[in-house]
Design goal:
Length: 236
């Protein structure tokens, strides 16, 4: 509930003053970021390439008593499944860098195809400029107590020769001072610089109306870990 409240406050800030009713998130995942929009009264739909994620999103929506229309769909093929009907199309949770630069362009064009006139594109992402500049490999986190276990998480990032980065998340589950289970999850990313994203959006005929840090610790977009971009289609 506390996390939902924080996210609702974020969306109220980002969308304040905009004429928006109908929203689509083309990388909705489990809905942890997007369902708060339904709680605020927006008409929300979502799609994701992962059937498992969509099923989890349905469950999360029911728990929050939020109505959301969901579909399994690759964000590079949105126009096969949706019409031009939304006031804003989003890609949340650092989802675009799961694909290469050319496919990001395809995804952004597909997002554009779903928008009403004067519509908006929203995306948020990790600050890949900072990641590539600092080249940090190891991230350590405080343990979490859950039931009878203490869960330890560590991230190890591999900077691959082809320019991709592999995020390895290591979990150790401890009971009574002994590790009883271990897990490793790996995800590949294609780092993209902020300037590259800005150029892609502007080349499609959009103007960036807001571009800000998402970090509580800093408002400096160059030093933040995450940022978002909100762009509006220019009137011709």
């Amino acid at each position: 509930k506390e996390r939902d409240e924080r996210i609702k406050n974020f969306w109220q800030y980002v969308l304040h003053g905009l004429c928006i009713k109908k929203i689509h998130d083309c990388s909705i995942g489990t809905g942890q970021t997007t369902l708060a929009l339904g709680m605020l009264g927006y008409e929300v739909s979502g799609s994701d390439i992962s059937k498992e994620m969509i099923e989890k999103c349905e469950k999360n929506a029911k728990e929050r008593k939020v109505s959301v229309k969901l579909k399994v769909c690759d964000f590079r093929e949105l126009s096969k499944y949706y019409e031009k009907e939304f006031d804003i199309v989003m890609s949340t949770s650092n989802s675009l860098p799961h694909v290469n630069r050319q496919d990001i362009k395809v995804a952004l064009r597909q997002m554009d195809q779903l928008l009403n006139p004067d519509g908006y594109i929203y995306l948020d992402t990790r600050n890949w400029d900072k990641i590539l500049r600092e080249h940090q490999r190891f991230y350590f986190y405080d343990p979490i107590d859950k039931d009878s276990q203490e869960i330890h998480m560590t991230q190890v990032w591999d900077y691959n020769l082809d320019g991709t980065i592999t995020f390895n998340v290591l979990y150790a589950f401890e009971e009574e001072g002994r590790i009883v289970r271990e897990e490793v999850n790996s995800t590949y990313y294609y780092p993209i610089l902020r300037k590259e994203i800005e150029e892609m959006i502007c080349d499609m005929g959009y103007e960036i109306v807001r571009e800000e840090s998402m970090d509580a610790k800093t408002n400096d977009i160059d030093e933040c870990d995450w940022y978002y971009i909100l762009a509006k289609k220019k009137n011709n």
